[in-house]
Amino acid sequence: MAIEMKVPSVGESVSEVTIASWTKKDGDLVKMDEVICELESDKATFELPAEADGILRIVAPEGTTLPIGALICKIEAAGAVSTPAAAPAVVAAPTEPVVTPAAKIIDVVVPAVGESISEVTIAAWSKKEGDNVKMDEVICELESDKATFELPSPENGVLTIVAQAGQVVSIGGIVARIAVGASAAVSQPQASPVQPANTTPVASDSSYAAGHPSPVAAKVLAEKGIDAASVQGTGIGGRITKDDAIKAEKPAAAPQPVSKPVAVPQVVAPQEGRVSRREKMSSLRKTIAKRLVAVKQETAMLTTFNEVDMKPIMDLRAKYKDKFKEVHGVGLGFMSFFTKACAIALQDFPVVNAYIDGDEVVYNDYSDIAIAVSAPRGLVVPVIRSAEKMNFAQIEAEVVRLAGKARENKLTIEEMTGGTFTITNGGIFGSMLSTPIINAPQSAILGMHNIVERAVVINGEIVVRPIMYVALSYDHRTIDGKDSVSFLVRVKQLLEDPTRMLLGV
């Protein structure tokens, strides 16, 4: 006996929904409470779970708008081969895929990819539904809030996709199933019963729905004083949907609801160039947003400023940059000077290198300095480990390596976790001054800015020097004003006299 699934009631003011997408295909085996499709109302999007175990028979295809209570699909018992009695030839077709479950079916789940990661997004499938896959062959690409990585097949077999591209799946969640020992040719006969399964219900719907408005559409038409008989329905079976009712007033300009209040017709033409679009936030962007807001709410953040005369560093680079690259194979940039200066200053002021853990303050005797990098997916912060033990060439090489991996979206979780202090350089984008936000759970972050020639007084004389403003944002719960200012002064001292970093004074 087949179980009929109907559109559930999703709210008092919602009278119809649209089938956004099917996560299962016609003829697929489904389990109770497994999501089979995604429904979309004018207010929200929600998932529809299966009401029983069995074989799915889709009644309404994707894009169909249905009223509450309308039939959306049927679920047949897995052993009920005799259900489609209309055509014996069609009955024989489903018996072939029923054999495939006799083969071993294994679930492909999202692996654990890091302590702080609880969910991932399916970025893209490199294999299609029903494809033959081999063990260790990449079947899809997963994207977390920190990195992108590939998911290999655990066995040889036929792939059945459970989670579609763009769907968010928790760690341990099922993304696909593999029929071990099956072949893709077995699943092809499923195409034959799909058409008969869909055609019958659609025909019956069209017999009563043609020319009839949905409840929401009827209300819109009544408010406009438009007869439903004059409106062409585009819904299932010719039903008049809410969009049809909205478009009925001005068919030519219906896609532009913004133009309705405009009184002067001449203004309509320029509106065609005014386009707005919506894009879903990536997992990385959502995580960045949550963490930055949390830092502002959970820390006593304060920022102190200073300025650095960059002439000594610029003179040193101009003198030795060619020889430095010839010897070490990497360029001599500003980041190595700032990283080394911060690593030394963190040893002098360990509280700036500490963080709060519950009721305790954790002090680190090493300096793992994170460098903020703008990548195609958003801001990432790879970490330079034990920077206090590295020389300029080693720091520069590590900066180049991590920045390259960031731009190619190849950073690993380990390369982006565990930093004790962060440096961000807004100056490369032209920023003159800013108050950077702490990278939790760290207690401080240094902001670099652009270099501008300014008139300054040195030894009683006005001279023009290349000046950079630097900012230190810190958590006032652990770091007092004295320590923060002293730390920034120490960094300034090392940068304005880089020989100190070489001599360790």
Short overview:
With 505 residues, the protein is an alpha+beta fold. 28% of the residues lie in helices and 27% in strands.
Helix content: 25-40%
Domain module count = 4
C-alpha Rg (nearest Å) = 31 Å
Largest sheet: 7 strands, mixed
Distance between the termini: 85 Å
Question: Could you name the CATH homologous superfamily of the largest domain?
Answer: Chloramphenicol acetyltransferase-like domain
Q: Which topology of the largest domain does CATH recognise?
A: Chloramphenicol Acetyltransferase
- How many strand elements? 27
**Overall mean pLDDT:** 80
Uncertain spans: 81-101, 186-208, 250-255
The share of residues in extended strands comes to 25-35%
Structural class: alpha+beta
Oligomer state equals single chain
State the name of the first-level CATH class of the largest domain: Alpha Beta
CATH architecture of the largest domain: 2-Layer Sandwich
Enzyme class: transferase
Cofactor: (R)-lipoate
Pathway: Amino-acid degradation; L-lysine degradation via saccharopine pathway; glutaryl-CoA from L-lysine: step 6/6
EC number: 2.3.1.61
